[in-house]
Every structure is written in structure tokens, then in C-alpha cells.
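Researcher: Here's the sequence for the chain we discussed earlier.
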Amino acid sequence: MPDLDRIVNAYDLGQIRKVTPMTNGKSGRAWRVETDMATVLVKTVADVARACLEFALTQAIQAEDCDVTPALLSTTDRQPFVTVDHQVYRVQNYWEQAAMKPSLTATLACYKKIRVVLDRFEYPWSPDDSHSLDRLWESQRVSLAQNWSGIYEQLIPMITQLETIDHRQETWVHGDLGRWNLLSLANEKVAIIDFGESRRGPRFLDFTALFDSFMPRDKNAVKMYKDRFCDLARIEEEDHRIFLATVQLWLVKGMLVAVEKMPERVQNFGDQVQLVGNLSS
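Model: Thanks. This is the structure I predict for it:
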């Protein structure tokens, strides 16, 4: 555990009363820290550049609507991060998770507000995609061909188009917008957290992540779900094909990660890729 006293002191948040380790996410480790002045979330950040980007983006979102994501705090020296023992940390207001699951309607309502900010956000640097399709395909294609030959053959005609979509830097995206980064609030609204993977990317990427998160298990219900999702997200009919192709991109990348880390899920990803493909035919 890091020296949380030093971190908290840098933000002048008083004395620590309680520390609770949180589930570690894709972009770092985190601790819920209760002090005599506030309850905050302390989280590791990969480096100073990402800490500054996440702070700038969160500030821009907060200026538009302070209810859609928790604020990141500045140190007493007005810095958006603190470095302790060569590790970068950022501190965020802690919002309590409500017991209810986030609804699709509330989630999209929140994200559309954030989408307005993402579309006009300007920043001089964008990180590379830490899970680009070309790198995942290069590293996992042999294993996929050997162990899931049917899925491999299914993907071969698709990869070039999906890589083209993946390389697009059309707008700023959250980059990791699964259910794990949705926060249900007591007022039945939803907040979105953890912009640590934000970068420029395909314009429908975040929508596709949410589409996957709420996709029904009953494959017979997916067509109706797609229509409802696109209506709520205001995705025009002429964009449905590229949207669905981006959903397939998201699923294929998840599949390739699963080849090494969760092989039991590869077939399920393959079935979903085929199912989504059928929606655009």
C-alpha cells in the first residue's frame, strides 16, 4: 500500500480515518480513503502525461455538467497529481454507488452529455491505444487459428476493415466504457468514471462499448435491442452499418484479449461477433 498520508497531505484533506482497497481497474490501483474532512478515491496513474490529460478532460466535463462524473482534485500546489516514491497518483471526490443497476436510458442520457464535451475537447497530445487491433491480432492470431479455427476463418475477411476503423482518430473517446465504469446514483441517474484510457479514436467506440454492456442474452431480442439503442443514442439509420462494424471491432478486441487471459470466453465472443454481423445483413 502506498504512503497515503503523504498523498492526502498534499491535498490538505486532514487525517485519515479509514482506508478501503478498491477493485483494481484497467488503468490502475485504487483506494477509498476517508479523512476527517472528506471521502476521496486515490488512484495510481501510468504517468504524468496521462494524469494531466485526465484532469483536463474531467475539468472540461465538470464545466459542462458537474453531475455526470466526480471531480478530480488539485493539490495545495495546484497540481493535478502527486508523485510519491516514483508513482503518480490522482485524487478524486468519492461518490457512493447505489444498489440498483444502471439503466440503459440513464446511462445514454449521461454519456450524451459527455459526448458533447468530447466532440469539442482540444488537447495537444493523445495516447496510443493500449489494445490496438493490429497488435492484438499479430500476437494472438496463431493461437486463435490453432485452438478456434472456425472463429479464425470467420475473422479473416473482416480484419482489414476492422483495423481501418480502429485506426481512425475522429474524436475523443472514453476508451474503456464498460459497466465497470458506470456509477449508479441514488437519484436513479448514472455517472461515468475513470477517464484514464481516454484518447482519440473511432466516433462510435464508446457507444459500442455500452451496446455490448447492455446486450440481451436472448439472441432473438437483439434486433429489437439494436433499434432501441440506436434510437436512444440518436444514431442515424445511415450510420447503423458503421456502428455495428465498430461493435464487432470492440468484440473482436475483447476476444483476442480473452485468448490469453480468459480462453473460456472466446467462443462466446465469436458467437456475438456473428450475431452482430447478422444485424447489418
